[in-house]
Every structure is written in structure tokens, then in C-alpha cells.
Amino acid sequence: IEDTELPRPYAQAEKARLISRPEAVGKMKAAISARHDPNLVIAGRTSATAITGVPDCIDRCRAYEDAGVDMTFLVGVKSRTDLETIAAALQAPIILGGAPNEMLDRNYLSQLGVRIALQSHKPALAAMKAAYDTLRALREGQAADTLNDVADLELIRQLTRADHYDEAIHTHLEPPSKT
Predict the structure, then answer these.
(1) What angle do CA 8, 14, 17 make, to 5 degrees?
(2) What residues does each domain of the chain span?
(3) 13-49: per-residue pLDDT in tens?
(4) How many CB atoms neighbour CB 115 within 10 A?
(5) Mean pLDDT throughout 159-176?
(6) Residue 62's closest CA among 74, 78, 51, 80?
(7) Interatomic CA distance for residues 94 and 104, integer angstroms
(8) Is residue 92 within 8 Å of residue 70, measured between CB atoms?
(9) C-alpha pair distances (Å), 1 with each of 51, 109, 135
């Protein structure tokens, strides 16, 4: 649940703005109270480090923790010093979004309580390009069975957990054998 003012107001040329802390806390509490699945993780997301600075980021994240979020999601942290300062002040696990490459050492991040470190939108962008290239090739007349760089059956079964699915069908949907 984000504390950035989105969508951006009409004709706003300056950088992103944050909503007020009370409004953000209200959004966090609303999401938490609406949760029906106790396994659903609710993260309080903030870009405060880049917009208003580390002290405000810490204050906001603490308020979100007090509201009951399961994780804090930090965007715009640009230095190890800032990350270390913020992490030391928080209790909840951290999602780190868009950090510079020099900050992405897994052991270092783990010691600070970072459990997820997003490394840009590259996987989604790669999937988008692959879908575009495939659809373009088909439109231009290439036969589907001649396409390269597509998932083979083994990868599809792995990604869809087909063995688990097949076992569930066997367990729950096949009639018992008559003896």
C-alpha cells in the first residue's frame, strides 16, 4: 500500500509527492482490516527517502508498522548508509525496490532484514518484448511450430508445478478403483 500521491495531479511538473502520514496510515489500516486471507502480506510502500529524506522515511515506516503492516517497502534508497540507518530503526522485514547494483549483495541485505530486493522491472520488460516479438513473427506469417526461444514442455511443467497438479487430480478427482 503506497504513500505516494498517485495518480499524479494534473499539470504537476515537480517530482512525486507523498500523501500525509495520517492518510497513509489510514490506507494501511484499511488494507489490513479488509484482509481475509491471513497469509496475504501487506507491505507499506514509501518513496520518502528520495522525496523527503531518511528521517521522514523512518517516521513513516514506524507508523506503518504500528498500523500493522507485515513488511515495509522502501523505494529510492541510494546508499548503504541510508539503508543501514533505516533498517536499524525498523522491526518489520524489508522489501527493497530499485537499489543501485552496489547495494545488492545478498548477504549484506539479509543482515539488514531485507527479504526481497527487486532489481528493476527487467523480467516484466523481457516478457513484454518476447510476447511482442512472437506476435509480430506470427503476424508476418511465421508458422507457430517454427518459433524459437519458447518454453519447452519440461519448463512449462516445472513452472506450473504439473506434478503437484497431477497428484491433486489423482487424489481428489479420480474415482476410487473397484476391487
Answers:
(1) 50
(2) 21-120, 123-172
(3) 777 889 999 999 999 999 999 999 999 999 999 999 9
(4) 14
(5) 88
(6) 74
(7) 13
(8) yes
(9) 17, 22, 34
User: Do 96 and 109 meet the contact criterion of CB atoms below 8 Å apart?
Assistant: yes
Say if residues 18 and 3 touch (Cβ distance below 8 Å): yes
Q: Helix/strand/coil (H, E, C) string of the chain?
A: CECECCCCCCCCCCCCCECCHHHHHHHHHHHHHHCCCCCCCCEEEECHHHHCCHHHHHHHHHHHHHHCCCEEEEECCCCHHHHHHHHHHCCCCEEEECCCHHHCCHHHHHHCCEEEEECCCHHHHHHHHHHHHHHHHHHCCCCHHHCCCCCCHHHHHHHCCHHHHHHHHHHHCCCCCCC
Cell 518489520, residue? Answer: 92
Domain 21-120 indexed as CATH 3.20.20.60: yes
With contact defined as beta carbons under 8 Å apart, do 104 and 122 qualify?
no
Grid cell, residue 169, equals: 487430480
Say what the pTM is. 0.77
